[in-house]
Amino acid sequence: MTDFSVDPDIAKAKTLHTDFYKRIEIFEQCKEKIFAPSWQFIGNTDLVPQHNDLFPFTLLENYLDEPLLLTKDKNNDIHLLSNVCTHRGNIIAEKPCAAAHLRCRYHGRKFDLNGKFMAMPEFKEVENFPCDDDNLTQLNIFKWSKFLFTTLNQKLVANIFLKDMIERVSWMPLDEFVFRPELS
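^ that's the sequence the OP posted. Answer follows.
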C-alpha cells in the first residue's frame, strides 16, 4: 500500500497518489479515521421545535450510515440517540412525529425520550433486568446558535474541530437564520 504523507512545508506540496482516491481500503480507513471521529453537522433546533418531537435521520447517509434519532423531551431538552433498539437492533422511529416515549415495534421495548429504558412486556421477572446496556446510546450534541453537531467518537471535544469556524463567523446573527427551501 502506498504511504501518504503531507509535508508541513507548503512549498513542498504535491498531489496525493491516485491510490488515495481509488482504493476501497483507503476509502474505508477514511471513514473510520477521519469522518467517524470528527464532528458532523446534523441540522438545527428547528428539526424538533416542540416537546415530544422526534426526528430520525441517518448520519452521513451512504457513507457512515449511522441511524440516529433527535428528540425533544417534555423539559424541552434536546437529545441525540441511537435509533437502534438495544434488544434486536430494530429501527425505533421511522419518520418525524410527536410521541411521549419511544417504542420498538419488535418486542415492545419502551424508552423515555432521553433513551432511558422504561419497560418491556412480559419481562418483569427477569433477573438483572433492566441494566444500563438496555438504554439507547446517547450521543453528544454540540449546539452553536441553532446549529447542531455530533460525533461518533465521544472522546473528542467539538472545540478541536469547530473553534476556528465559530471565531471567524462570530459576527453573523446565526440565530436569526431561517431555512428557505424554495431558494435551494
